[in-house]
Specification:
Elements: H1 5-11, H2 21-35, E1 41-47, E2 51-59, E3 65-67, H3 71-79, E4 83-85, E5 103-110, E6 116-124, H4 132-148
Antiparallel strand pairs: 1-2, 1-6, 2-3, 4-5, 5-6
Length: about 150
Amino acid sequence: MDKHKQLIENSKFYLDSNLRTVTNLANLSAYLFEHIDHINWAGFYLFDGEELYLGPFQGKPACTSIKMGSGVCGTSAKNRETLVVDDVHKFNGHITCDSVSESEIVVPIITKNGDLFGVLDIDSPTLKRFDLEIKKALETIVDFLVDIL
């Protein structure tokens, strides 16, 4: 976690409870995209009560909606658990938005009252890009986001 301490601490500068949610999500996705090495997509899918829809992100155009339980994002959202996928081509039902993506991490965003808000999704063109340390760092950053929702 120490190697990601600066990433975690600086993320707080992009989260302000006085700003609109979309503004916080847009700035946070841009910050993560710029400061995490070897990634090609960083952003949010938001839950509308039935499925996930594309929110603010950085990277190539992406899928606009994902059914609960589909792909890495839909599975993470349905199970309400962070998923680290070392090789997306081995993940049953993986949804390909960018053909160069090799690995992925998805962190569910659960509000303080237990509702699913959405997920943070980050893709990498490198196999096995996401380790336990970055998982913990991103979960901490999502906790900061939850604090201002």
